[in-house]
Amino acid sequence: MHELKLIQLYCYICEEYNQFLRWNVQRFSKNNFEGQISDEEILTIYLFCLCYEEKYKIKSMHQHIEKYWHSWFPNLPAYQTFNHRINRLAAAFTYLTQRLTQAFYLPADCLTIVLGDSMPILTCSHKRSGKVATPLTNKAYCATKNMHYYGVKLHTLALKRAHTLPFPCFLAITPASVHDLTALRSVLEKSYAHMSVLDKAYCDKELQQHMLAKGNTLLTPMKEKKGMPLIR
């Protein structure tokens, strides 16, 4: 079964690469030649190990392919080159994610109610100097977890479903310091849901009025004013 899944995945990647992905991959001169393995094979290895072999680290992926699937990828380069090639394909992964998201069908039981939230993704302690994805990461404070951290923030909007998990309709990653409202304001303004349920970070009269004009009711908890007793 794994062999069939690998073949299907490779055929899908080749089709997507030839039609769309190749225009989103940075080209290099022949002086930077790094072996015979193709971009399509690199993408296939990464997604196959991630989805079917439960390998989540680049080094584990490389070791697994080298040990069990080397006959399928005889031009597999050394780990350092493999890791570098994957990093170079970052733009292709971004576009491929968009393509896969667009291909998802909308479940019939989805309600026109949007649920939203964000969560911190830590790359290191706030006491240290971050070295991972430095153009994207920075320092921030997470009130929910009562901690300072260095990293990024994942923002999610999903459609409510009955008796099961919501269906994701929007995902975004921003630097940790970007406010939740700033990250999702433009998306919420264009939303045509009947109701949006979000936390206190999205309390904004202007946004609420803009959404209401489109028939979208924004529901958020009331912000407590300093010095005022709590309302129970």
TrEMBL record:
BP terms from Gene Ontology: DNA transposition
InterPro entries (UniProt xref): Transposase_11 (IPR002559)
Any one Gene Ontology MF annotation carried by this entry is: transposase activity
Annotated transmembrane regions: none
Q: Which Pfam families match?
A: DDE_Tnp_1 (PF01609)
Question: Where's the Transposase IS4-like domain?
Answer: 112-225
Name under which the protein is recorded: Transposase
